[in-house]
Amino acid sequence: MVLPYLMGAAAGVAVAALCAAGHSWRSRAHWREAQEAQHAQHEEALAQAEARVLAAQESAAQEHEALAAQIESLRADLAQRKWVNEAMEAALGAERARSAEARQRAERIAGEAARLKQMSATFERWHEQMISLMAQNHDMHLKNQELSSIVSHVLIVSLNASIEAARAGAAGRGFSIVAGEVRALATRSQELSKSYRDSLNRNDLITAATFQDIQAGGKMIAASLASVDSLTQQLHAQLEAASVEAQA
């Protein structure tokens, strides 16, 4: 009874052991499958992560290239702007130099215009003085004519006195001497009057020629002054236009 029981127990133990071994083998197989599946998931996740990293790197490289292109474009634009600014500064400097030169020229022209105005005023004064001198010469001519008429009358009177003294004989001898002296003085006065008239005539010629020269010089100065004023106005207009352009 015991032996069969022991044999049955042994058989049960063996069966249990076999069952346990089978279960252990299935558990290990299942664990390996789980490990392989997890490993596969890990590899897939790693591959996806690597793909994302590569995509991110490619995107970063593209962005870097685009940024580098933008930087180069900005540098080129900045260089062009710098060149344009330098050209504008150079042009502005040249324009300022021309404006300064034009201002200096305008100042010189204004100075010349002022001197021409002074000369014009001087010529006007000379013109008035020459007119006054010509009037004085005319007045002296009238006075000399009157003096010449008086001298001629004195000569006639002295001649009549000499005739009357000759008729009176010895009694009129003294009067005859006085009449002769008066006639001699009248003759000298007549000669002086003629010389004075000749001098006045020469003065008239010189005065007339000088008067004409002064008139011609005054007209030339007036024409030059008008030309200078016109040129000054043109320079001022150019300076104003240049100033407006520089401000714009």
From TrEMBL:
Cellular compartments per GO CC: membrane
Segments forming domain Methyl-accepting transducer: 42-248
GO-annotated biological processes: signal transduction
Gene3D superfamilies: Methyl-accepting chemotaxis protein (1.10.287.950)
Keywords: Coiled coil, Transducer
Coiled-coil ranges from the UniProt annotation: 32-119
Domain of life: Bacteria
Transmembrane segments annotated in the record for this chain: none
Protein name: Chemotaxis protein
Native organism: Paraburkholderia pallida
